[in-house]
Amino acid sequence: MAAIFFDVDGTLVRWRGDYGDVLADAFERAAGGSRGEWLEHYDDQFFHHFGAFADDPYHQAFADVCDEHDLDCDPGDLAEALVAAEFDAVEPVPGVAATVEALAERHTLGILTNGLPDVQFGKVAEIGLLDRFDARVASHDPEIEATKPDREIYEAAKSRVDADRYVMVGDDREPDIDGAREHGFETVHVDATAADLSAPDFRTLSVLL
Ligand SMILES: [Mg+2]
C-alpha cells in the first residue's frame, strides 16, 4: 500500500480568478473599499508573519495595514472576511475529484501543505474531498512549524501513515518535487495551469506503473 500525499494550492484547488481579487474582495467586505497600497502592504506583512509562524498571520497582517493606513476597521473582521473570500474563490483543479476517488479505493491519501490547517483543509472541504484524506499535515500546525522543503514536515507526514511507499503529488518544483524526493518520497508533478496536454516525465511515469 502506498501513502499518497497531495499539495493543496495549484494541485487540488485553484483560484477562479486572481488572488489579488480575492484579497480586494475581503477589504470590500470588511472595510467597505479597497486600495492597491493596502493590498501590497497586506501581502508583505502576511509573508513576514507567516514566515515567523505567527499564531494568526492573517489577523496580524491586517492589524499592521489598519495601523499604517489609519483604517477604522477590525483586523479580526478582515481576517474572517479573507478566509470566507478564499473559500468562495476556490474551485477543484479539473479532473482531480475522479483521480482522488479512484486512488482512495486502493491507497491511504494525505494532504501535505504549506499553510494554516483550518484554511488549507477548509479549501479541500469546499471542493467536497476532505473526507478522502485520512492524514492531514499543514506547516502551521503548532506541532509541526516547518514548511516544505524542510525535512521536518515530510517526516511528520511519514509518521502519520505506515506505508510501503510514500508519494508526493504537487505543482511546485522545490517543495513538492525536489524536497519530497530528498526526503524519501516518490513524486508526481502536476501543472494545473497547463493549457494543453503535457506528458509526464519518466520519473512520474515510473511512479504510476
Ligand atoms: Mg502548490
Automatic annotation (TrEMBL):
SUPFAM superfamilies: HAD-like. InterPro entries: HAD-like_sf, HAD-SF_hydro_IA, HAD_sf, PGP-like_dom2, Pyrimidine_5'-ntase_YjjG. It holds the Pfam family Hydrolase. Transmembrane segments: none annotated. Belongs to the HAD-like hydrolase superfamily. NCBIfam families: HAD-SF-IA-v1. PANTHER family: PTHR47478, PYRIMIDINE 5'-NUCLEOTIDASE YJJG (PTHR47478:SF1). This is Haloacid dehalogenase superfamily enzyme, subfamily IA. It comes from Halosimplex carlsbadense 2-9-1.
